[in-house]
Description:
By secondary structure, this protein is mainly alpha-helical. Helix content is about 55%, strand content about 10%. The protein has a 3-stranded antiparallel β-sheet, with no helix packed on it. It is elongated and about 50 Å long.
Amino acid sequence: MPVSTTGHIQLDDRGVAWIDDTNTKVIEVALDMIAHGWSPEEIHFQHPHLSLAQMDAQIQRDVGNVERLRNQASESPIRKRLREMGKLT
Length: 89
């Protein structure tokens, strides 16, 4: 039973994100992209029950969230140390 809906994504009562009208978790698609370097077209080929619109909408939200969080976050200790060592510009 979904408790929250965002575009084509629903969170269940445990906080697990699922793609609407499918039996596919968002993390499964994300891991396919990371592990295999799949494009949205390849993900759609491998998961034909997902529409590109479902994936595109979530990707756009995720990119926006990452940028927002990156702008809000301070520099991590490891990045600061690497910058001081001249290993990071």
